[in-house]
């Protein structure tokens, strides 16, 4: 060992600096390959993993946002369906409707002489049934008009047609009229899915 040290000490400056430079290069290379490069690879791996996590987070956030929007849309649709079923109920509820018409007529000041519901009818491709109600009332023109106006603003759909006014007579200083008309309400009818097997059996 001492011999090598003596040689290094007695060596020319150029050799000394060349060896020192080689040693520095060797240490730098070793530091790069064994320390810096693994750190860079680890950092790149962590950056890639972070990007993947950010992408997954963005995708999940978008899914969550879309899910919330779909839930809001479903809530709106359910509310609209509930409102539609109020206007076009699934059940007949004729007795309740008759009570409402009778109440509206009395509040308008009419004398209700006849309320006669008829049989419901369903068209071939219709999703609703028609329920006709024949009515005969008496009152002055203003009372009849007010009754018809109130019926038109009911939540449940009620169409009034075939309105007839006759029998004008003076009663208690009012011109009384007899009015007959047809009030038609509707009921939702669930359509049944067509069974393809039934069609094939008919063909046989």
Automatic annotation (TrEMBL):
Membrane-spanning ranges: 17-36
Organism encoding this protein: Archangium minus
Tagged with keyword Transmembrane helix: yes
Name under which the protein is recorded: Type 4a pilus biogenesis protein PilO
Lineage: superkingdom: Bacteria
UniProt keyword list: Coiled coil, Membrane, Transmembrane, Transmembrane helix
InterPro entries, alphabetized: PilO, Transl_elong_EF1B/ribsomal_bS6
Keyword Coiled coil among record annotations: yes
Coiled coil: 50-87
């Amino acid at each position: 060992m001492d011999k090598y040290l003596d040689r290094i000490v007695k060596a020319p400056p150029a050799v000394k600096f060349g060896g020192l430079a080689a040693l520095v290069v060797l240490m730098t290379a070793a530091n790069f390959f064994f320390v810096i490069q693994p750190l860079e690879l680890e950092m790149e791996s962590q950056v890639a993993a972070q990007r993947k996590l950010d992408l997954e987070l963005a995708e999940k956030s978008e899914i969550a946002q879309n899910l919330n929007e779909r839930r809001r849309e479903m809530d709106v649709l359910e509310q609209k369906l509930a409102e539609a079923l109020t206007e076009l109920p699934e059940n007949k509820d004729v007795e309740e409707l008759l009570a409402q018409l009778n109440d509206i007529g009395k509040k308008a000041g009419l004398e209700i002489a006849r309320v006669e519901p008829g049989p419901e009818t369903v068209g071939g491709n219709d999703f609703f049934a028609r329920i006709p109600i024949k009515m005969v009332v008496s009152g002055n023109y203003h009372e009849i008009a007010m009754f018809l106006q109130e019926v038109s603003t009911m939540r449940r759909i009620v169409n009034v047609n075939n309105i007839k006014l006759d029998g004008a007579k003076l009663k208690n200083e009012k011109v009384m009229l007899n009015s007959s008309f047809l009030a038609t309400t509707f009921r939702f009818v669930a359509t049944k899915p067509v069974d393809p097997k039934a069609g094939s059996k008919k063909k046989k």
